[in-house]
Amino acid sequence: MIKWKSNKVHWHNADSEPTTLDHIVDVIKSNDLYEIHVGCDSHKRGQTYIFAIVIAGYVQRRGGTFYFHRKRSTDSSLSSIPFRLMKEAELALEIAHELKERFPSKNINVHLDLNPDKRFASSKVLTNAVSWVNSFGYNAIVKPNSWASSGLADAFAK
């Protein structure tokens, strides 16, 4: 089990202002057109691994809004890239589960920072991670289309 530096969950909006999951849910509820997208990415800084988890409400060709939350760990098991990539998938799934409880009729898209190109290390866990996400009834999205993880979460994991 990963040891996190804090178990507190602090969500922030796109301007890095603090918010709550309840507020995020209210925003998504306010626009029936919003698609729900979640993603996670991580980076190592020194001996600390920083994970950023993102929730995005998106309307095709119109844009949307997003929120993020960070987790930090110094757990050495995260030095394994496949393990860390699966931990990213797990954290995205945790948020997807919470949102599914609040939006049972909405499709939830889980973005994975995984590349199907065999030249990249992340391709080694692609089948397992995609199958895991799909087994819960979510839509798994991978590179180059996984903007919630490889774009948004990536920026906030640094």
Structural class: alpha/beta
**Overall number of structural domains:** 1
Q: Work out the strand percent.
A: 25-35%
Kindly provide the radius of gyration, computed on alpha-carbon positions and rounded to a whole number of angstroms: 15 Å
Strand count: 7
Q: Number of helical segments? A: 4
What distance lies between the first and last C-alpha atoms, to the nearest angstrom?
23 Å
H-E string = EEHEEEHEHEH
The coarse overall form would be: globular
Question: Which strands sit side by side, in order, in the main sheet?
Answer: 2-1-5-4-3-6-7
Average pLDDT for all residues: 94
* Spans where pLDDT lies below 50 across 5 or more residues: none
Biggest sheet descriptor: 7 strands, mixed
Multimeric organization: single chain
Q: What is the percent of helical residues?
A: 25-40%
Explain this structure:
The chain is of the alpha/beta class and 158 residues long. The chain has one domain (11-94, 101-156). It contains four helices and seven strands; from the N terminus they run ββαβββαβαβα. It has a seven-stranded mixed beta sheet. Strand 1 (11-13) and strand 2 form a beta hairpin.
